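Input/output pair, single chain:
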Amino acid sequence: MLGGLLIEGVAFVVAAFVLFRLKLDNLFFIFGAIAPVLLISGVVSHYTTVKAVQTAYDADRSAGASGLANTVATPEAGTSTQSGGATGEWRLVRYEVDEEQLARDAPADLKLYWMPLPGVEPVPSADFYRQADGEWVQVIRQVRSLVPNAGFEQGDGLSGYPNDLYKAPADTREVVADTRNNQATKVAVLKNGGQTGQTSLVSAPIAVNPKRLYLQAGWLRSDQGGEGYLGRVWLPKGTYEYFVKSDSPTWFHYKQIVRPPADATKIQVGAANIASQGQVYYDDLIFVELGQLNDAACQQPATPGGPLRCGPPLLTGAKD
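Output:
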């Protein structure tokens, strides 16, 4: 009995002494020793999760499953969307358009799906109406791709993207036959190899306005280690930015609705294969003007505390 109490007493004194000597800097030292282990294990866990999702997706696609091409009305696996967030009193949710028609240089009606922010009472019109799910649809009539031959189907195929930022040899850029969504199509390919590690497809300069919104979209897949990008160059400063970076061997559809920087007057739409020795394939690289931001869309409420009465977020066909 006394022996047990003596042992417990000694243990208590030792523990108290250790805690007293373990100052804050010692705690930092211990955390510094184990933090890399925690960080590495977290990174490995994250990578394993992402890889598992990608593997499952690739298996599903190889089994023949595919959604509707070029539509977000029924979302397709492998589609990445960046809508640009809130615009004025509205949040842009998605869009819907026949992109293949646009890639053939034909006009098409485009639908933008908006959700009003709290305190907004939308004002409907013929091309601006509410759906049962609460989303508001704005119809943009007869839009066109501002990049011609965006589907690479006409002539030599590269007339819409005649330029290369990196001045790579001509044989690194060509149009080939491929299959996407179980349909035969012509696509552009950027082929890196040997001394060539950077290639690109760049459109001619296109006039833009910072008061307007634009849609950039396209399909991309990589092969044998190619690393594909979708982006643009804002002029006159020549500022380059990309919104897609992918090395997936599966066809993915990407899109982004973007507003030009305040100092931009033109844009060059582009795709690239950077820092790789493989190939990247592209299709339907469209660029579309959606409309001018409607700064006067909302009117102050007639009674204090009432909702803002707001018309459509964009003006179509407006001239600055």
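The helical segments are 2-21, 24-62, 99-103. The CA atoms of residues 291 and 316 lie 5 Å apart.
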